[in-house]
Write a structure and sequence with these properties.
Keywords: DNA-binding, Transcription, Transcription regulation
Shape: elongated
Domain HTH tetR-type: 16-76
InterPro entries: Homeodomain-like_sf, HTH-type_TetR-like_transc_reg, HTH_TetR, KstR2_TetR_C, Tet_transcr_reg_TetR-rel_C_sf
Strand content: under 5%
Helix content: 55-70%
Protein name: DNA-binding transcriptional regulator, AcrR family
Number of domains: 2
GO molecular function, one term: transcription cis-regulatory region binding
Radius of gyration: 20 Å
Distance between the termini: 63 Å
Structural class: mainly alpha
Length: 203
């Protein structure tokens, strides 16, 4: 199994890989070589194990892609299910969704990056894009609700506002790197302050 140690020809023990480590390594190689440019042989070489050891846990490269994008999507949809996202003032709920989405992006950076770079070239990618559109739609509805209650400027289009808002959040994948000295709270505070100061209804 992937989680067990293996041995090379000289009898030296190699560290094994559990499914999470396998997935993390696969996503890293996808980023380096591109999904289409990565073969199971490439993954086996990087892991230092045989292809059959990989197939013990996953059926295909496409399954690894699905697991990677689903990890990001599941974390984002979980934010929408949190009580603070569903209850109370719409503007406060929207603020919470954006703040927590920044945290998800940072915590699951390799997986969110993978999600944001899929282009719909396979069934798995098209399913991922459909779930992304569903997430965007739900956030757009929350923006519209905040507008109807008078907390949000009425001259802003809800769908466009949602896209621009999460465009700023998603841009973190281009520059954020762990151990830069910026905490999750500092980044989330800056993003939400920039966004919500401009969106609030003017008195």
């Amino acid at each position: 199994m992937v989680g067990a140690s293996t041995s090379d020809g000289a009898g030296r023990r190699k560290p094994g890989y559990d499914l999470d480590s396998l997935l993390r390594t696969a996503v890293k190689v996808f980023h380096e070589r591109g999904y289409d440019g990565t073969s199971m042989e490439d993954l086996a070489k990087r892991l230092g194990i045989t292809k059959s050891a990989i197939y013990h846990h996953v059926s295909s490269k496409q399954e690894l892609l699905r697991m990677g994008v689903d990890r990001a999507l599941d974390a984002l949809f979980a934010v929408l299910d949190e009580p603070r996202s569903r209850e109370g003032d719409p503007m406060d709920r929207l603020h919470h969704v954006v703040w927590r989405s920044v945290e998800v992006l940072i915590d699951e950076l390799p997986f969110v990056t993978l999600l944001l770079r899929v282009r719909g070239n396979s069934r798995v990618e098209r399913q991922a894009l459909a779930r992304r559109r569903e997430f965007d739609h739900l956030v757009g509805e929350l923006v519209a609700e905040a507008e109807r209650t008078g907390n949000l400027r009425s001259d802003l289009d809800p769908a466009l506002t949602s896209r621009l808002l999460f465009g700023m959040v998603n841009s973190l994948i281009e520059w954020y790197r762990p151990r830069q000295g910026l905490s999750k709270d500092e980044i989330a505070e800056t993003v939400t302050r920039l966004a919500f100061d401009g969106m609030k209804r003017r008195q």
